[in-house]
Amino acid sequence: MSKRAVLEVIALDAEDATAAQAGGADRLELVTEIAADGLTPSAATVAGIRAAVDIPARVMLRLADGFEAGDVDRLVAAAEEMRGAGAEEFVLGFLDAEGAVDLDAVERVVGALAGASWTFHRAIDRAADRDALRKSLDGLPGLDAYLTAGSSTGVDEGLPTLLAEAARGGEPGYEPQILVGGGLRLDHVPYLLSAGIDAFHIGGAARPGGWSAPVSEAAVAEWRRVLDGG
């Protein structure tokens, strides 16, 4: 029997989370300030969502659109606060000015996660060298997924990179799951599934009414149907 593909949906609040779970989402990504590409939500929001649904949720650890000196201490504090609010999984990723992974920042924040599972987010799509980034992070505790479109401009341009990286699964740096998101459409899914990619992340695609509208249970259910081969 084939393994069910993972469907992760961005949730901004408990209403989103409830609709996503009802539509068949396997996991949530919890953020705020989507206009800034997603920042760390409040502890109250995280606690409310954890009380509303029982599917896993990964909390974004990102304080601003950019990275400044002193942010690491604040991120560590945010991670500890989120854990106190019930967060058990996380999303993070930091680059330096040259486009290489900021390994010191990543290691310090991961150290505050107490072994929790986490995703390295789409900072990989802005990295100067994706392969070097993956190998630098190889073996860090809890890293089990890369959220990526294969390109900073989205899946349309990144599809060849995604397929090439999927073919390297199991190599050092390529063990974490590829979680595809960023301009992802339903018509991309057959190509990705055929390459063995089995995790998909949607935000705007779950909101036909735009980001000012809540997650649509029906939209999530349509993605679930397609991913399940319906």
Automatic annotation (TrEMBL):
A Gene Ontology molecular function term of the record: copper ion binding
Pfam families per record: CutC (PF03932)
Tree of life domain: Bacteria
Stated family: Belongs to the CutC family.
Protein's name according to its UniProt entry: Copper homeostasis protein cutC homolog
Taxonomic lineage of the native organism: Bacteria, Bacillati, Actinomycetota, Actinomycetes, Kitasatosporales
